[in-house]
Amino acid sequence: MDSNQVIDQQENKFEPVSVKEWMLTILLVAIPLVGVVMMFVWAFGSGANPSKQNWAKASLIWALIVFVFYIVFAMIFGAAFMAAASSQGM
């Protein structure tokens, strides 16, 4: 068996994720806390389809980026609010 046949067999090992499975995935991710846990399981677990693993990793990265921006904006606007409140004598 040459290397091309081995690569072809490895690529055919995983079937595309079905629409039904994506619907269930989206439903589970929509549940608070359960969704975050499941995204970590799919991203770093060994049994998930590679497409779902990549999607979960990308979603976690985006969630981290949004969380960091949220914290930065909360600090900026919180500081501005505190400065405005202290200048008004509150």
Give short descriptive properties of this protein.
mainly alpha; single chain; 90 residues
Summarize the SSE layout with pairings.
Elements: H1 3-12, H2 19-30, H3 34-44, H4 50-87
Helix pairs in contact: 2-3, 3-4
Quick synopsis:
Helix content is 79%, strand content 0%. It is mostly helical and 90 residues long.
In words, what does this structure look like?
This protein is mostly helical. It has helices at residues 3-12, 19-30, 34-44, 50-87. It has a domain at 3-64. Helix content is 79%, strand content 0%. Helix 2 packs across helix 3 and helix 3 crosses helix 4. It is elongated and about 70 Å long. The N and C termini lie far apart (79 Å).
- The count of strands amounts to 0
Rg, rounded, reads: 22 Å
Structural class: mainly alpha
Oligomer: single chain
Question: What's the number of helices?
Answer: 4
Global mean pLDDT: 88
Topology as a string of helices (H) and strands (E)? HHHH
The separation of the N and C termini measures 79 Å
> Which residues sit in consecutive blocks of at least 5 with pLDDT less than 50?
none
- Helical fraction equals over 70%
Largest sheet: none
Shape: elongated
* Strand portion: under 5%
